[in-house]
Design a protein that fits this description.
- It is a single chain.
- The chain has about 300 residues and is an alpha/beta fold.
- It has helices at about 5-20, 20-30, 30-45, 60-80, 105-120, 135-140, 185-190, 205-210, 225-230, 240-250, 280-295, and strands spanning about 50-55, 55-60, 95-100, 125-130, 145-150, 160-175, 190-195, 215-220, 240, 255-260, 265-270.
- It folds into 3 domains: about 5-80, Winged helix-like DNA-binding domain superfamily/Winged helix DNA-binding domain (Arc Repressor Mutant, subunit A); about 90-160 and about 270-295, D-Maltodextrin-Binding Protein, domain 2 (3-Layer(aba) Sandwich); about 165-265, Periplasmic binding protein-like II (D-Maltodextrin-Binding Protein, domain 2, 3-Layer(aba) Sandwich), CATH 3.40.190.
- Helix 1 crosses helix 3, helix 2 (about 20-30) packs across helix 3 (about 30-45) and helix 5 (about 105-120) packs across helix 11 (about 280-295).
- The termini are far apart.
Length: about 300
């Protein structure tokens, strides 16, 4: 990638990220013709098409996919050198922080985080991103600053810090017969499971298997609100946050019971990429999240 100036590097990053000339132009705030001219220069410099025509759209070449991480990292290094030094005082901090979290964690910490930002870093903005693929790449390339929730394996370099243990309860439609759920009764029920990644099995199933039990997961949904709406209309149960259950039971015909032993807590962690370890704004954000979690 010789002979690429800074603007072409930005364009190359946008082209690879969006997979289209128009998408790159929109991201950079330039015209489509300007993006096309830049792509022509990039092709000449790299000796690779970067984007190749495929039907009515375009696809990234193997070379583009191979260099994507290096391009993003190089661009951010250059921006760090050429850009303004991050304000050391939170009151002067002007930044958009992206937090990936489920609906329950957002409900627990979201309002307090907004209030803390408004009081101490009023020029900054919080973006709460809905959970989806949970790709580690979003942490690696900075699209997500922190991920809050129950963490699976995220990669050997990802930093993880415990925030708190979230109390969990069993949500069910109002009017159920049993007032106490044993582990066996829990396993024999039909379940609406909440999974960050759309998985049908997880730690709950491992614990049941240790006791010679298994459950039937009737449906898997991406968040607890969706689980609550389904449970209110069927005979299934769902394992959710107690704070969430307390709030949603005032809105829907639902009630909750204590979870069986071994299922009563879930560890909530904060994950981030080490490239932000010494970044002043990121350090400040993490400190606020830890402080709010401890006082919560």
């Amino acid at each position: 990638m010789q002979h690429l100036d800074f603007n072409l590097l930005r364009t190359l990053d946008a082209l690879i990220a969006t997979g289209s000339v128009l998408g790159a132009a929109e991201r950079l705030g330039i015209t489509g013709s300007a993006a096309s001219r830049a792509l022509a220069r990039i092709r000449e410099a790299t000796g690779d098409p970067i984007l190749a025509r495929a039907g009515r759209g375009m696809v990234k070449t193997p070379h583009a996919l191979a260099i994507a991480g290096r391009v993003r990292a190089t661009l951010q290094d250059v921006e760090g050198l050429l850009g303004k030094h991050e304000a050391s005082m939170p009151s002067d901090l002007e930044r958009v922080f992206c937090v990936r979290a489920d609906d329950a964690i957002t409900a627990i910490l979201g309002a307090a985080m907004i209030q803390r930002l408004a009081a101490r870093a009023p020029l900054s903005t919080l973006v709460f991103r809905a959970e989806g693929s949970e790709e580690v790449s979003e942490l690696r390339d900075g699209r997500v600053d922190v991920d809050l929730g129950v963490q699976d394996a995220l990669g050997p370099e990802i930093r993880v810090r415990k925030l708190f243990d979230d109390q969990r309860v069993v949500l069910r439609r109002k009017g159920g017969t049993h007032r106490r759920l044993t582990l066996r009764r829990f396993a024999e029920s039909e379940h609406v499971d909440v999974s960050r990644r759309g998985r049908c099995r997880g730690p709950v199933d491992a614990l049941l298997a240790d006791h010679g039990l298994a459950r039937h997961v009737r449906a898997v949904v991406p968040n607890q609100l969706a689980a609550a709406v389904l449970v209110a209309q069927c005979s299934a149960i769902s394992l959710v946050s107690r704070r969430f259950a307390t709030a949603i039971c005032t809105q829907l015909p639902l009630e909750y019971l204590a979870a069986p032993s071994g299922l009563q807590t879930a560890r909530i962690d904060m994950a981030w990429h080490p490239r932000f370890d010494a970044d002043p704004g990121h350090v400040w954000l993490r400190q606020q999240i830890v402080a709010l979690s401890q006082s919560n």
